Amino acid sequence: MESHVPDADVWTTADGEDVVCLRRWKGTWAKDDPHANFKSDVVGYGLLDPLHTVRGMSRNLGIPTGAVVRYVLARWASGGSGGLLEIGPVMIHRLWEPVARAESACTDEERLAAYHQLRQMLSWLKLPLDDPEIYPPQAEDRAPEAPAAD
Predict the structure, then answer these.
(1) Is residue 118 packed enough to be buried (19+ CB in 10 Å), middle (13-18) or exposed (0-12)?
(2) Which of 31, 82, 92, 114 has its CA 20 to 30 A from that of 16?
(3) Is the dihedral of CA 78, 82, 85, 91 positive or negative?
């Protein structure tokens, strides 16, 4: 059972605006915590001062600091759904299938095979980014041909 952390770091002003305290966190977690990587990132990135960058952006762009922070948080928080929209649900299922198969087999050999399959799938998806000339121009990209002389 997970325990909920009280949200004393967020409050609402009289005019309805949210205020957030940017707090460093030095928590601990169990070795088998499924969120250990994320928690480790929270501790590591907590050593940095994001406001140094945000204040510079605010000053250089003429946008209030709070508006830049809200944009950064919203952009990051919605990144997963944005990625899903870019890749598409069909491809997500196709990419997940080797992982699910490897995890159900629960062997290092199957996990390595899944890695190789995913690498191949991703290299195929990445091919047009690495070599834009790979596909011939489409009809709308070609200049109209002059009619043949009689």
Answers:
(1) middle
(2) 82
(3) negative
